């Protein structure tokens, strides 16, 4: 970790425009939970559906995409990353610092609102579903962040590719193709949630014994890929 890089990255990510993007989706989730609670439509099945469909399946990947690509992608696009690369800072340290910032942002803007929404809904006091989804968001946020940071380093079209993965592969194809559903960070995170709650409305297609190693493997692979690619950017610049 490099504190200077972390501070600069936090400042850039929490600027007015990006802060609005980071706040919009969590606010919608909390408002939805409040509305359901006020109208009495907050039974266990509805609560599970809201926390899974909007919290875990929509809010989490989109926020991770914004944070993961935002912490390093703009610097690569405008060439500012080369200023950082000229400093005597190991490339893995740069990547780990950027990844740590992305994870903190995802936890703050996705996990906290998920927990709050779960407490507002009946899920907060039933089968521990609110805290269970929060843990799922926490672990899923780490993996998503690693993937999207790696995408931002590898491709200038990281946002487009990330949207295709999150919305097409995990959401659209995942509803029709069992293979696509099982090979998704969303389902791996849902497996953790499923283990932590006894609610029958929460069901993952992947066993925990498979989901956890896959979450770890994707996180490590994404981090290593970003570090290797960042090193090649430095070499290309020197040439």
TrEMBL record:
<keyword id="KW-0812">Transmembrane</keyword>
<feature type="transmembrane region" description="Helical">
    <location>
        <begin position="93"/>
        <end position="112"/>
    </location>
</feature>
<feature type="transmembrane region" description="Helical">
    <location>
        <begin position="132"/>
        <end position="154"/>
    </location>
</feature>
<keyword id="KW-1133">Transmembrane helix</keyword>
<keyword id="KW-0472">Membrane</keyword>
<protein>
    <submittedName>
        <fullName>ABC transporter permease</fullName>
    </submittedName>
</protein>
<dbReference type="Pfam" id="PF12730">
    <property type="entry name" value="ABC2_membrane_4"/>
</dbReference>
<feature type="transmembrane region" description="Helical">
    <location>
        <begin position="161"/>
        <end position="180"/>
    </location>
</feature>
<feature type="transmembrane region" description="Helical">
    <location>
        <begin position="208"/>
        <end position="228"/>
    </location>
</feature>
<feature type="transmembrane region" description="Helical">
    <location>
        <begin position="51"/>
        <end position="72"/>
    </location>
</feature>
């Amino acid at each position: 970790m490099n504190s200077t890089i972390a501070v600069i990255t936090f400042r850039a990510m929490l600027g007015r425009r990006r802060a609005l993007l980071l706040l919009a989706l969590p606010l919608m989730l909390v408002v939805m939970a409040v509305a359901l609670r006020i109208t009495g439509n907050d039974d266990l099945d509805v609560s599970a559906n809201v926390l899974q469909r909007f919290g875990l399946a929509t809010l989490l990947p989109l926020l991770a995409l914004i944070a993961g690509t935002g912490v390093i992608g703009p610097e690569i696009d405008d060439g500012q990353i080369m200023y950082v690369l000229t400093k005597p800072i190991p490339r893995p340290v740069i990547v780990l610092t950027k990844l740590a910032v992305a994870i903190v942002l995802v936890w703050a803007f996705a996990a906290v609102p998920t927990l709050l929404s779960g407490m507002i809904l009946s899920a907060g006091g039933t089968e521990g579903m609110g805290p269970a989804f929060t843990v799922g968001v926490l672990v899923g946020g780490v993996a998503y962040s690693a993937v999207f940071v790696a995408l931002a380093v590898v491709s200038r079209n990281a946002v487009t590719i990330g949207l295709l993965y999150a919305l097409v592969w995990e959401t659209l194809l995942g509803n029709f193709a069992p293979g696509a559903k099982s090979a998704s960070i969303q389902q791996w995170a849902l497996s953790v949630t499923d283990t932590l709650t006894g609610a029958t409305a929460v069901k993952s297609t992947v066993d925990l014994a498979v989901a956890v190693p896959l979450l770890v493997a994707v996180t490590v692979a994404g981090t290593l890929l970003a570090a290797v690619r960042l090193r090649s950017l430095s070499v290309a610049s020197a040439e």
